[in-house]
Amino acid sequence: MLYKGSCHCGRVAFEVEGELTGAVSCNCSICARKGALLWAVPHLDLRVRAEPVDLGTYLFNRHVLQHRFCRNCGIHVFAEDAAPGTDRSAYINIRCLEDIDLAAVPVHEFDGRSM
Q: Is the pTM for the entire model greater than 0.85?
């Protein structure tokens, strides 16, 4: 299924192909503050529609993930593996997807704080 999403102001829009069967709620220091619900997909299934100047990147800790956000409205839209390669993943913030019934998506708790 094709899903469309964006940040609040719309400068960072994206499309992602896949089956949304669940999301992860992580309790690490950044995810707990953002309140994101993350859906892991192959990076090749994510198509970002944004000017490079509008898409910010935040790295912390071991710099394993690039946390991507809109430089205008500040909304975290997705994260992606920082390592190069074709088997990378993207982690979509499903709160940014259009027409999603969040209550119908199973959420799995992840203890990122312990990593």
A: yes
